[in-house]
Design goal:
The chain is mostly helical. The protein folds into four domains: 86 residues, no CATH class; 107 residues, no CATH class; 155 residues, no CATH class; 65 residues, no CATH class. The chain contains 22 helices and four strands. A hairpin with a 5-residue loop joins strand 1 and strand 2. It is globular. InterPro entries: hAT-like_transposase_RNase-H (IPR025525), HATC_C_dom (IPR008906), RNaseH-like_sf (IPR012337), ZnF_BED_domain_contain (IPR052035).
């Protein structure tokens, strides 16, 4: 299990630190929950806003266990109401896998054709000659997919459909091509290639989506709603296509989409709160997306739920800030009383001035109490970034500059914008670029693996103070890794 902390520091920089990489003793949810709780205690972490996990029943059980413990120890916000966040990349994989399962035969025929072409140098050379004769221009060449990774299947289909005319000519040039493929799933025909193009068109937005929402060092929680709304618009438009088969495929794809994202109750409302905290969008954009994706009455109900969630969170954050401030005032007051001289002849005048000052603060609070941070924030004009790319707008820099203007709301933004909506980065943390473990790595104990993985995670990231990318030093890191492996192996032999 990999446990990674995502947080925004006092300088409004997003940080990601792997806390642990360890073997769990059981697949049960409560066992995983206990392991996570122990890791948090080891690190001295006493506040947790959300936990992003893959879509699995054991993870649901783990979150339930942690919610109970957090409530007991006062570690959560709003008694863990928004603690559980399901990995968006995982949901995307489930949607696409459901779709591809309906086109297994089509994909198998294309895969068989690619395998045949690439199985020998002679067939590959003959196919390249067909490509030249047909004058096909492409930067990419035929690639075989990994059947368990749908993104590679998408790339295989996308590239293969560009060589349709080359495959047709190759069938005439190679006498064994058709016979061998007919022993399996068959030969892709013209109708298959039409369906492949349709499928590629459907898969493209889902292929691009994980790259946008799985960033490690950029805020992603505020862009997700806009991305899935755009996918919804595409599917809805495709359903109205004059191509009957294309329209039918769009309807089937839309059913898969609705299965996971069709009900707001299935989503963590913090994903919508994050959009509200984006000064380019705010609540208006949330309401707009809801009207695009749902019926009018349902959109109104959902917008109301988001508003209530923001107010509920702000109330809780304001309460926590007031408690913290009152404690600081109390501490200062006690110090002042200890140093105050009892014989101060101006004590009465000071008390009067203190009363006057308190009355002034009281009037100011009464004048502004009806206008909260949220009201002031929403009443401001949206930040106009039409002239800039989305990548150039830094939402954290904006909140850093405006944190004094919205003291309570900025505290909420500080936590909400740090939420990772995908666990994909955690899954790739031990990717060494090799396809298999060598003899030394295979002999590592779990403790050494944990040390190497966590150290690598901390070293690889660019420093905010000194932007050095450790990817450039990977050869040295690999040498160190190998030396650690040898030491561990020698220790085991001793």
């Amino acid at each position: 299990m990999s446990l990674t902390a995502h947080f925004i520091d006092n300088d409004w920089k997003l940080n990601k630190k792997m806390l642990n990489f360890f073997r769990v003793s059981s697949c049960r949810g409560d066992a995983n929950g206990k392991a996570i709780l122990m890791c948090l205690r080891d690190w001295g972490i006493d506040k947790v806003f959300t936990i992003t996990v893959d879509n699995a029943s054991t993870n649901d059980d783990a979150i339930s266990f942690l919610k109970n413990r957090f409530n007991l120890f006062g570690m959560g916000i709003l008694r863990g109401k928004y603690l559980h966040l399901k990995c968006i990349s995982d949901i995307i994989n489930l949607i696409v896998s459901d779709v591809l399962n309906e086109f297994n035969d089509l994909v198998a025929r294309v895969r068989g054709a690619v395998i045949y072409v690439r199985q020998s140098s002679s067939s590959l050379q003959k196919f390249k000659e067909c490509v030249e004769i047909q004058e096909i221009q492409s930067k990419n060449f035929l690639c075989l997919d990994v059947s368990t990774k749908w993104n590679s299947t998408y790339l295989m289909l996308d590239v293969a459909q560009k060589f349709e005319r080359a495959f047709e000519r190759f069938e005439d040039e190679d006498p064994f091509y058709k016979d061998e493929l007919l022993l399996g799933d068959g030969v892709p025909d013209s109708n298959d290639w039409v369906n492949v193009r349709r499928l590629v068109l459907f898969l493209q937005p889902f292929y691009e989506l994980p790259f946008k929402v799985a960033g490690s060092f950029c805020v992603t929680s505020n862009i997700f709603l806009g991305e899935i709304c755009e996918v919804y618009r595409l599917l809805r438009n495709w359903q109205s296509s004059s191509d009957a088969e294309f329209s039918t495929m769009a309807k089937r794809m839309k059913e898969k989409y609705d299965k996971y994202w069709g009900n707001v109750g299935k989503m963590n409302v913090l994903l919508y709160v994050a959009v509200v905290l984006d000064p380019r969008n705010k609540l208006d954009f949330v309401e707009f997306c809801f009207t695009v994706m749902y019926a009018e009455e349902e959109a109104e109900v959902m917008t109301k739920e988001v508003k209530e969630a923001v107010f509920e969170l702000l109330y809780d954050y304001k309460r926590m800030m007031e408690l913290s401030q009152s404690k600081q005032v109390s501490d200062r007051s006690q110090m002042s009383q200890k140093t105050q001289a009892f014989g101060d002849t101006n004590l009465l005048q000071k008390k009067k001035r203190g009363l006057s000052s308190d009355f002034k603060k009281y009037r100011e609070s009464r004048c502004t109490e009806q206008k909260t941070d949220l009201d002031k924030y929403l009443s401001q004009e949206l930040v106009d970034d039409e002239d800039d790319d989305d990548d150039e707008f830094n939402i954290l820099d904006w909140w850093k500059s405006n944190s004094r203007k919205f003291p309570v709301l900025s505290h909420l933004a500080h936590d909400v914008l740090a939420i990772p909506i995908s666990t994909a980065t955690s899954k790739s943390a031990f990717n060494t670029g090799r396809c298999e473990l060598d003899a030394y790595r295979g002999s590592l104990t779990s403790k050494v693996v944990q040390s190497l993985v966590c150290a690598r995670d901390w070293l690889r990231r660019p420093s905010h103070l000194n932007p050095t990318y450790f990817e450039e030093e990977m050869e040295e890191i690999d040498k160190l890794d190998l030396e650690f492996s040898k030491i561990e192996l020698e220790s085991a032999l001793d």
